[in-house]
Amino acid sequence: MDLKSNLKSSRRSFIGTTAAAVAGFSVIPSHAVAGLGHTPPSDKLNIAGIGIGGKGKVNLDNMPGQNIVALCDVDWNYADRVFKAYPKAKKWKDFREMLENQKDIEAVVIATPDHTHTLPAAAAMELGKHVYLQKPLTHSVWESRYLTELAQKTGVVTQMGNEGHSNDTVYEVAEVVHSGCLGDIKEVHVWTNRPIWRQGMPKPLKEVKVPNTLDWDLFIGPAEMRPYNPEYHPWIWRGWWDFGTGALGDMGCHLLDVPNYALHLGAPKAFQASSSLVNTESAPVSAQVTYLFPARKNLDYCAFPELELTWYDGGLMPARSFDLPVDAPMNPGGGFMFIGSKATLIAEAYGGKWKVYKNGQEVVPETRVNIDRIPDDPMGGGRHEMHFVNCCKNGGKPASSFEYSGPFNEMVVMGNLAVRMQSLQKTLLWDSENMKVTNISPDETLVTTKLLPFSSDIVTRKVEGESKQSVKWNAQEMCEEWVKHTYKNGWSL
């Protein structure tokens, strides 16, 4: 049996080879030990990119001065421009073969589709390699918890790729909140115009020949196999349940970041959703998700009472509060609003262009809390990416390490659970410790819609009954499946 076949049949032998490395691994700054081969002050980190055709290239380019030693992508045509940009890097299609055979890798940058985030991240961490993982951190709630705990166990440096979390405006808004300038915040609204790709779609009818540069089996990974179609790759995968997490997964880690950070949200205790038509294959065109967060520990100048946060996508937006100026800016592209007992704050993603309003007028708040900023990189690299690199080489914890981003991502992708469980017509009660919805009985039925496959080259007119069907599932079983996915045979953690 060749290596690739053996790796596909089971990861057990691969993980077995890493046990000794994990058992003896600890994070020690490279300036203090020469084990990684660094020579300060000109030391460079040996980085591998996994999933490089899109956002992965941006992240690698934002790590100037480092050694890009390996590049891995399932589609070598899509990745060709990156191969040309880093001609000295060794090329791979299967991350497992790369990690098993290339020994000089110290850190990985992962920007694959959402459903294949966790597997390469976990494999790298088990080998003691540092991990920069694009947002959303994972495809499911359970995977987020798994990576959070694995990061703690292995001690590697981690960072989620919500790059704006390193912006100054994140900390400026947090200072306004923590200084008590807004009073008690019990209501938050967050919105985006995404998706800007197709959603609410059935499977395409026509099977298309797989391009010879693409390993379709590796793209599918742990998901259920389906025929190739350009509706899935290279970019539109975001809208399909098996591969992506829809508008919420795409933009939630951007737009929900400041509310999560500034308000110390933690895990919700309940959540619910409403949306346009939910189908078995892809996320809806638009959705609204409301989370209920319990009261949190107060700060010196700021209380954190019970809070309702509502997410809107697909162009939906919250109503404009009547005590705001009639022309207070609320960018339709995306933003958030904190409604406090003293004042209201409105901003764009990561706190951009934030403004505070009181009694119908814009005001300049006086803060009394200072939060350290993430430093700029003197080489001109990305602030977020280079913060990760510097922590890998010199010790420290990145701004969006898995300790922060893991629990945050649980909350984000949990919203899709609410969207998919709508037919139960109830508020879902959440037990965070056990990652379980507690108010679904074993005999409840979930009803969703299966849309009949479409063909892009045939125009048809069908009445509603001929274009969609109702599908019934056991609600408890499906809820458990969506919290923790069942991987296809040959893929496991």
From TrEMBL:
Identify the Gene3D superfamilies for this entry.
Dihydrodipicolinate Reductase, domain 2, NAD(P)-binding Rossmann-like Domain
* Every Gfo/Idh/MocA-like oxidoreductase bacterial type C-terminal domain range: 169-263
Q: Which GO terms describe its molecular function?
A: nucleotide binding
Q: Which SUPFAM superfamilies match?
A: Glyceraldehyde-3-phosphate dehydrogenase-like, C-terminal domain (SSF55347), NAD(P)-binding Rossmann-fold domains (SSF51735)
Q: Where is the Gfo/Idh/MocA-like oxidoreductase N-terminal domain?
A: 47-161
Task: Report the PANTHER family cross-referenced here.
Answer: BCDNA.GH03377 (PTHR43818), NADH-DEPENDENT DEHYDROGENASE-RELATED (PTHR43818:SF10)
The protein's name: Gfo/Idh/MocA family oxidoreductase
